[in-house]
Amino acid sequence: xxxxxxxxxxxxxxxxxxxxxxxxxxxxxxxxxxxxxxxxxxxxxxxxxxxxxxxxxxxxxxxxxxxxxxxxxxxxxxxxxxxxxxxxxxxxxxxxxxxxxxxxxxxxxxxxxxxxxxxxxxxxxxxxxxxxxxxxxxxxxxxxxxxxxxxxxxxxxxxxxxxxxxxxxxxxxxxxxxxxxxxxxxxxxxxxxxxxxxxxxxxxxxxxxxxxxxxxxxxxxxxxxxxxxxxxxxxxxxxxxxxxxxxx
Amino acid sequence: xxxxxxxxxxxxxxxxxxxxxxxxxxxxxxxxxxxxxxxxxxxxxxxxxxxxxxxxxxxxxxxxxxxxxxxxxxxxxxxxxxxxxxxxxxxxxxxxxxxxxxxxxxxxxxxxxxxxxxxxxxxxxxxxxxxxxxxxxxxxxxxxxxxxxxxxxxxxxxxxxxxxxxxxxxxxxxxxxxxxxxxxxxxxxxxxxxxxxxxxxxxxxxxxxxxxxxxxxxxxxxxxxxxxxxxxxxxxxxxxxxxxxxxxxxxxxxxxxxxxxxxxxxxxxxxxxxxxxxxxxxxxxxxxxxxxxxxxxxxxxxxxxxxxxxxxxxxxxxxxxxxxxxxxxxxxxxxxxxxxxxxxxxxxxxxxxxxxxxxxxxxxxxxxxxxxxxxxxxxxxxxxxxxxxxxxxx
Lengths: 248, 394
What we know:
The complex is a heterodimer. Helices cover about 5% and strands about 50% of the residues of chain A. By secondary structure, chain A is mostly beta strands. Chain A starts with a helix and ends in a 13-residue tail after the last strand. Residues about 240-248 of chain A have low confidence and may be disordered. In chain A, strand 11 and strand 12 form a beta hairpin. Chain A has a domain at about 20-135 and about 185-235: Beta-galactosidase, Chain A, domain 5 (Distorted Sandwich). By secondary structure, chain B is α/β, with parallel strands linked by helices. Chain B folds into 2 domains: about 5-10 and about 305-390, Golgi alpha-mannosidase II (Immunoglobulin-like, Sandwich); about 20-300, TIM Barrel (Alpha-Beta Barrel), CATH 3.20.20. Helices cover about 25% and strands about 30% of the residues of chain B. In chain B, helix 1 links the parallel strand 2 (about 20-25) and strand 3 (about 45-55). In chain B, helix 1 packs parallel to helix 2 (about 60-70). Chain B is globular and about 65 Å long. At the A-B interface, helix 1 of A face helix 5, helix 6, helix 7 and helix 8 of B.
């Protein structure tokens, strides 16, 4: 065992290292990239989003660890494209169960995460798709403006005390300000999204995830089925609040 | 290593005290009583939270043996008892016979019908069998004077979704698992951010009774959300595992210090950390790093707290009055993997010891003592914990 491995065992109880973490600064953003996930998206000192990731749950709500086949990073000062191709191995070397690709485009004031998943064999899951974590600071106990899939728009106060049930359902777009003047917009495409107060499970976040919990779980992505989901984070220009979406 | 220096100085006095610090025991996995006796002597937890399944006929005889050990050492025993679903009262008779044979009754009992170890959506289908409040009423009838709890031996979610009648309970309780949703190092450490909200929310559910967070570790002892835990050979960082490698490393020690500091400041009364024996064993002497944290903090149970001011989020720090009026004890934990440069302001150090990944247990560090005393900076290694005795200012 090397010196590094010995220290790792003293610290973590295992010589196994975590996937590499890289930090990027692009346009207005700074963020980290680890294991195919965007983490700690900041504008200056203000944390906008704690993380955006493809989360693949097994039927027991355990989390699958995908095998990475390829990762590509194209980078300039004003633009970044991060791409990871992955698969989940089937049991007993039967070939992959599921193939996927996550594609992150970061530009001046917008960051877009797109996920494609293709089931190679029937794939049973409690939930598979994109999830977005909002940080607690500036979010818990604060107002958010939500646009539902039927274009109805409403403003709600996120809970201060931990909410046992979902604070928000049926989300197409969220607007919130993690700090005064930092108006942020999140657009969700490709499934029905809703929000959970993850402080229930001692996570430091509110989570916006695909597929309503009220739908049956686990469910099966059938062999050959492909799903595509996309989340776009935008720093809002100072636009009029009633411009998009009809008030109901 | 971060370039910035974190300055630590005295903060506000609080009316709070350091919570009672104890350990868990899983009765169905208890095999070696002599080993538990040694661990009780070395770690000296203030209490044991004992998880037992009353449907298992071996549970009660084992409990009698364990309580004898605990009584000899003046360690309070709290029972987290799983009972049958249909007629919880039927589960209580063997326990009642055991109580009759004990010199001292347990400090308190939480009864959980087995079906309530699982989680249900607030608007989902709940078990049609007896609820925890029915089980509690049965226990109340049998033991009118016993401290009976509301809550769950699982996680805050299950308490929040099945709230007890605050007028019917003598304490409120739940456990914490920091690896339900994410198991990478940073996400696990970030769970500490949510602890103040968990404590405040639990407190609000039953403002008048003591609040106990039961056995909590880097791990999950049961999976309320599915059929089973995630298999782990003890080397992998996976969610919902009872065999997380970090529980045996310095990481768990730093997390535990952060957890105690956050929960203490927010107002928890009692905290139970790791276990004697599986699943979250503190180890044989010298034991895993978290063992030294539990032993060190349990000794200071009930001491009046004083906050510290920190100008950085990488560290957690707290002080409390020792039995000597002139001296306070200060604990500082680095919650990150990188070294953090720190400086103490207006603090006169008497003694200094360090728990880091290079030694077993806290060790004096004369070089660091000299530097910090002189007002110089000192680098605290990743996940290291600094323990100081300092002179109180007049």
